[in-house]
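A note from the maintainers: we've had questions about how concatenated examples are separated. There is no special marker in the raw files; a new sequence line simply starts the next protein. For clarity in this README we add a label.
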Amino acid sequence: MSNEEEFVKIWLRWAFNFILLLVLLVVTGISVAGLATVATLGFWTGLSLSAVLQLALLLVTFFVAVRVVIDSVKIFDRFAKRLLGMLPVVPGRTGLKRLAAEVALLAILSLFSNLSISFLSENVPEVIPIASLVISLAILVLAYDVSKSIYLIIEAPIHNFAKLVTEEEEEETTQPPGPSKAT
């Protein structure tokens, strides 16, 4: 399966699960008050068929919401990769160089957003919601990519540390029992 076919499949699954989630939320009438009544201790004292069905619908809704979030992250990842590919500073760099470039871009974007919002608030206040939305999305994409870069940098040391710890545990469990060295 090609990348394009896989991406279309993700979009279709996301759309189906999102619509299903909306239908479940409307049908079950999930609200903060509804969640509070299910979660109270009173739920367990008077266990009835309707309470069990409400709990089952709540669980199904939760799992559909999880699938929507997982597919949303995959879609957002592709979007962020394509958007950052357009920037001349980020592509081709890896590791600490990429992280430094992204952090610098994030700082510049944050300063630019503060300047532009203050300028727009005095001159064109009608544009502030749109400008802040666009700038917030750009900051979100950059912050997401910074977190991915940090993860990629620390991934190998964490795996090595975990491997070292598990090897030590395996050595301790495979040693034959004998007199302890503490006595």
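[label: protein 2]
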Amino acid sequence: MAYRAISKAVALANAHTAYLAWLAKNPGERSAAYEAITNKKTGKDKISRTAGFIIPFGVNVASRVYLPRQVLATSQSTATNSALAGAVASALNTTGATQRAFPGTASPYGTGGSASYELSVKKDFKFARVSVKQITTVATQKSNSRITNNLYQKNVTSTVTAPFGQIVGGETEVAAVEAITASESIATILASQTQKASIRFIAEGSK
């Protein structure tokens, strides 16, 4: 067995011992361990939402079926990370992945233009989602994990997640993902070298 493999086994054994000790802690002790972290995020990111509608993928757009849903508001001035939240909101708005009003009608609950709109409410429906994570503060030194005691770089991150669907003209989920990723606001965020970001998509119907 190589020396590298042996040293790795020792490190894993030490981490396992620390993990078992963590499992033995009560909730109060775990909370105290978290509070002891100096470079940590305080609370969940706040974003601004507004009432809107989404067209699920796989639905024939000619049937005009929209599902009511809280979507990202156009203005994200009060968001925790207004630049990031604004970029995601802009991408969904410019690509048409979310709708804040029905096209061609003043009221989504009646008849507008040349056709009626059907509204459906499905509480258990899982919309497709986009999640963009950005490093807001780079750690100047590594910290010990409170669970395994291993050293790692604990950067402070910000994450914005939002639901989306197909555009009014219809498209596949793959096409929507490509359009959102290529949108100017998202491309700018992902290109930043100082606040590195990553993007991921959760497929429609997934938890």
